[in-house]
Design goal:
By secondary structure, this protein is of the alpha/beta class. The chain is built from 5 helices and 11 strands; from the N terminus they run E-E-E-E-H-E-E-E-H-E-E-H-E-H-E-H. It has helices at about 70-75, 135-150, 170-180, 190-195, 225-245; strands spanning about 5-10, 20-25, 40-45, 45-55, 80-90, 100-105, 105-110, 155, 160, 185, 200-210. Strands 1, 2, 3, 4, 5, 6, 7, 8, 9, 10 and 11 form an 11-stranded mixed beta sheet that branches. A hairpin with a 2-residue loop joins strand 3 (about 40-45) and strand 4 (about 45-55). It is globular and about 60 Å long. The structure holds adenine. The site of adenine (ADE) has 13 residues, from strand 5, strand 10 and strand 11. Adenine binds near residues 88 and 226.
């Protein structure tokens, strides 16, 4: 089986990576069923990258239907250590304009019907999740974005993950603003939790596409608006990934983050009983 160091999960508007060379498509089966689609493996800036479209080609899976356990398992089985999610989000702040990018550093879970863990049926694991996104990967993404010079990127911010598939009401949107949330999306969970349990480094390039529905002087979010604003910022996300590929350290154990050791002292179940 081919191996890859970087995994990219592409959200709405990102269904393929045109800048990959030596491309191969592979279908992976996992104990949790099929991933969202075939995985494309190739090289970006000379580094092996695996690309998986989260909603499947043709956008056939809604956020609640994404098989996240299979997706993370499949990437792990390819040897992936660094997972970057590229996701469309709504902005809950005036200063985060549509077409800006955000590298969030916090997460609030407002999902309702998703499986959040690999561990069940007799094995109990409680991983630390105070820092839901890998700080090492997030800062390399930020550095890569800054190097491009022409990309508006915001450092940090809280991503509230809602269930969907309908967008929020105005009451919800305003409540999230009052709670201090910065961006809203439907897909960072359970991915971030599963990536942590799989001891992968995981971070998000959030592409702001709209002001959700809180901003009275702006039109409320619609699919047309999301799709219209995506093409510009997914192009920038791909350029960031090209720069990032050259920066990732060969050995994760030399890095400040502890994602690689997330299961150390997280397992409650006594295997001897
Ligand atoms: N994805 C893009 N825009 C969004 C919004 N306003 N709410 C939830 N998910 C989104």
């Amino acid at each position: 089986m081919p191996q890859a160091k970087i995994g990219v999960i592409g959200g709405s508007g990102l269904y393929q990576m045109e800048n990959m060379t030596d491309v191969e498509e592979i279908r992976i089966q996992t104990p949790f069923g099929d991933p969202s689609d075939v995985i494309t493996i190739g090289k970006v800036s000379g580094v092996e990258m695996a690309f998986l479209p989260r909603h499947g080609r043709g956008h056939r899976l809604n956020p609640s239907e994404v098989p996240s356990r299979a997706n993370i398992w499949a990437l792990k089985s390819l040897g992936v250590e660094w997972v970057i999610s590229v996701s469309a989000v709504g902005s809950l702040r005036q200063e985060i304009a549509p077409r800006d990018l955000v590298i969030p550093d916090q997460l609030l879970d407002r999902t309702k019907s998703r499986v959040n863990s690999f561990y069940e049926g007799g094995v109990v694991v409680h991983c630390a999740f105070a820092e839901p996104f890998c700080p090492t990967l997030s800062s390399l993404l930020l550095e890569s974005a800054h190097e491009l010079g022409d990309v508006k990127v915001h450092q940090g911010g809280t991503y509230v993950c809602m269930e969907g598939p309908l967008f929020s009401t105005k009451a919800e949107s305003n409540a999230y603003r009052q709670m201090g949330m910065d961006i809203i999306g439907m897909t960072a969970l359970p991915e971030a939790k599963l990536a942590r349990e799989a001891e992968l480094c995981y971070a998000v390039i959030a592409c702001a596409t709209d002001y959700d529905c809180w901003y009275e002087s702006e039109e409320s979010v619609s699919v047309e608006m999301v799709v219209g604003n995506l093409s510009a910022n997914t192009g920038n996300a791909k350029r960031i990934l090209q720069t990032l590929a050259q920066k990732l350290p060969a050995d994760r154990s030399t890095q400040a983050c502890t994602c690689e050791r997330a299961l150390d002292s997280a397992i409650m179940t006594d295997p001897s009983l």
